[in-house]
Amino acid sequence: MMSRRGADWGNRLWIKSVIIILLFVAGVRLFQASQYQIISMLLVIGACFPIYYRYERKQINIKELVLIAVLIAIAVLSRFLFYMIPAITPMTAIIIISGICLGAEVGFLVGSLSAITSNILFGQGPWTPFQMFSWGMIGLVAGVPWLQKRLKKRYWFLALYGILAGFFFSFFMDLWTVFSIDRYFSWQRYLALLLSAIPYTISYCFSNAFFSCFLFRTIQKKLQRILIKYDIK
Prior knowledge:
The protein is mostly helical. The chain has one domain: Orthogonal Bundle (Arp2/3 complex 21 kDa subunit ARPC3). The chain is about 85% helix and about 0% strand. The chain is built from 10 helices and no strands. The protein has helices at about 5-30, 35-55, 60-80, 90-100, 105-120, 130-140, 145-155, 155-180, 185-195, 200-230. α2 (about 35-55) packs parallel to α6 (about 130-140). It is globular, with a radius of gyration of 17 Å. It starts with a helix and ends with a helix.
């Protein structure tokens, strides 16, 4: 039977996930994708609020905030270093590993802030909120306890999650592409985009699987040492 503490954590996670999803949907519906700055800021606030709330209640210390900032910087750098190779980037793997090692809240924070921060280099636009949401949810789901345990223990499960994360990101971003054409959703157009992007999607999926498995143990050991050395809980 799930403990009371575990049940409370799970309830909080679901509530936060629903709030984030509602912020995204409400932003897109109310402001349209053209007002991407407003939607992006809503997602930034939604992502940061739980962390800063815990900080104000003394449940998180400045060392953990610095660690999160470093992970975001590494994720952004990894995207920049591989920008000349289409569909190949370790950024998604670092977001996944952040969620596995530090939990769902941190996973979403690293994913969403890495997207908006890296787009300072690659260009902000109506696609930014969609990238923030999709990368954030990839990090969040990786930190869900029952999945988190399996991802830590089995490389094949980690590789499978990397592949599924790639499909989710590609399928979700193609939604934005369809809406961006004339603000109307068409299944025919969506399927055409999915089919035309198959080589890119496959490359991205297997790049996620490779980098997740290749980097996981190294980053996990480093994070464990930092958590113990600086007494970060």
